[in-house]
Amino acid sequence: MAGRIGDAEPLFDYLIDANGEQAGVGIGAQISQNAGIWYPTRLDTYVKVVRSMKYYDRYMDDTVTLHHDRAVLEDLLEGIRAQCDELELVLNPKKTLIIPLTQGITFLKMRYRFAGNGRLLMRLDNGTFKRERRKLRKWKARGMAREIVEDSYRAWRGTVIRYPSSHDRLMRTDALFRELFPDYDWRRK
Q1: For 85-109, what is the mean pLDDT?
Q2: CA distance 38 to 27
Q3: Please, are residues 85 and 78 in contact by the beta-carbon 8 Å criterion?
């Protein structure tokens, strides 16, 4: 197959086949994580070296490229599509966009946008809070063990509290936690 790198082809075929009917590799195994970082390296080389894009970043399947000229970005996107076709990678049409930075972007579960004064604002993506609230409700319905609930929520909260711009949503999630688990205390320990 075109685009596959040497002896790695059987490994990628195995990882993809092991995932059943779903596209891509499963996210649980460490080798799948490594493959997700390594396999699109050719795409990185195309964007950074061949096209000389200064503001490009990728982690796994999350990518962002910044440039002031829309025509350059449109041409780059066509080149990226060609590279992805050769690598047998599929771009998500809903997430593959060329938009002005004033509209804001989401990259690695962070929402970036510019304020009127030119200051960059960073907030955790709303999905982070939705997933946690959904998880708390499931735990309540399943009668999850107290220690697991407290430890997990404490760990999640410790990550989120580092982002002051997400304070209001964190307080709402704390309120839901107290409502669902009134006798639990993640502050304990």
Answers
A1: 89
A2: 14
A3: no
